[in-house]
């Protein structure tokens, strides 16, 4: 489940570029939204379906005072290194100088994408969710028993931890060791983990705060520190790109 590169690009781009779209050099709301969307698309890829929205009342008029308020950015079909994912970001306290007071972004990797990146012993199982767990469904063992493994997903400083919680077999939920005690099933428990998926070194000021399965895929939530959301030309603000992983503008797919 190699997703490090999947999350680094939108995290870095949103932290350093999308806030610049808040300036927009425009004094009406729809022009400001168009500018934000353009800035997002330049980093997330020309093929991404990007939408931006200024959510505060009279946001367009607020630009005359140097304030924009809250900006939401949604992007579907973002691609990088053959992986497709969605980005949903919210920046708060956005000013026309390109800074913000706080922000977060959720990167959602679809279950079909995750299926292609499962560890070799679990290839062929189908990821999904039952509403609260990350599920892996398929047939296991020499008997071809249909099984759905219910996994807990948690975020920690080292990345994601996926821990098998229980299994559902023929409509019955049971403990994992009940299944793995059957002849020929011992290796199955070792294949399931728990597993920790490292995200590597995130850009400074960006931290993973949550990971959970959603209807659309595995959702990873990141928060940005105020320092990383300052305009590049503001006192103490970041200068240039905060991550060499994000590359230049244009399509990020390879």
TrEMBL record:
Q: Which UniProt keywords apply?
A: Signal
Give me the stretches of Gly residues compositional bias.
245-254
Spans traversing the lipid bilayer: none
Region annotation Disordered: where it falls in the sequence: 229-254
Hey, what's the signal peptide range on this chain? 1-26
Instruction: Please state what the protein is called.
Output: DUF2993 domain-containing protein
Please name the source species: Streptomyces smyrnaeus
């Amino acid at each position: 489940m190699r997703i490090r590169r999947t999350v680094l690009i939108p995290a870095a781009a949103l932290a350093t570029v999308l806030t610049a779209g808040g300036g927009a050099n425009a004094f009406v709301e729809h022009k400001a939204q168009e500018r934000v969307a353009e800035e997002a698309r330049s980093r997330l890829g020309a093929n991404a379906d990007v939408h931006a929205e200024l959510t505060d009342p009279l946001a367009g008029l607020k630009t005359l005072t140097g304030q924009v308020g809250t900006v939401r950015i949604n992007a579907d079909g973002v691609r990088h290194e053959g992986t497709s994912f969605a980005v949903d970001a919210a920046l708060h306290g956005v000013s026309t100088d390109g800074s913000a007071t706080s922000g977060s972004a959720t990167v959602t990797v679809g279950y079909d994408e995750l299926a292609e990146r499962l560890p070799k012993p679990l290839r062929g199982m189908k990821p999904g969710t039952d509403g609260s767990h990350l599920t892996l469904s398929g047939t296991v063992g020499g008997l071809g028993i249909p099984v759905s493994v219910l996994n807990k997903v948690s975020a920690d400083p080292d990345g994601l931890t996926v821990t098998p919680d229980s299994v559902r077999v023929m409509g019955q939920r049971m403990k994992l060791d009940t299944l793995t005690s059957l002849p020929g099933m011992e290796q199955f428990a070792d294949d399931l983990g728990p597993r920790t998926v490292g995200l590597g070194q995130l850009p400074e000021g960006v931290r993973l705060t949550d990971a959970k399965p959603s209807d659309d895929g595995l959702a990873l939530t990141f928060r940005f520190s105020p320092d990383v959301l300052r305009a590049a030309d503001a006192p103490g603000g970041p200068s240039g790109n905060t991550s060499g992983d994000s590359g230049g503008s244009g399509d990020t797919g390879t």
